[in-house]
Amino acid sequence: HLESVIRSRIPSISSLINKTIDELESEMDHLGRPIAIDAG
Questions:
Q1: Which domain of life is it from (predicted)?
Q2: Distance of CA 22 to the CA centre of its chain
Q3: CA angle, 14 as apex, 8 and 20 as ends, to 5°?
């Protein structure tokens, strides 16, 4: 029973991880662009 509960929650966990990665990448984009502009 516990295994089925975990399996049912895996999609939400993986989507949460993907969301966090997307946010990190967008943060890096925001941080990286001004630095690249200053360097150029």
A1: Eukaryota
A2: 4
A3: 145
Q: Which two tokens stand for residue 19?
A: 């969301």
Q: Report the pLDDT value the prediction gives residue 36, as an integer from 0 to 100.
A: 59
Per DSSP, the three-state class of 11 is helix
Spatial distance between the Cα atoms of 27 and 40, rounded to a whole number of angstroms: 20
Is residue 36 helix, strand or coil?
helix
Structure tokens at 20: 């966090």
**pLDDT, tens digit, 9 for 90 and up, residues 1-38:** 889 988 898 889 899 999 999 998 888 887 777 665 66
Q: Name the CA dihedral angle for 12, 15, 19, 25, rounded to a multiple of 10 degrees.
A: 150
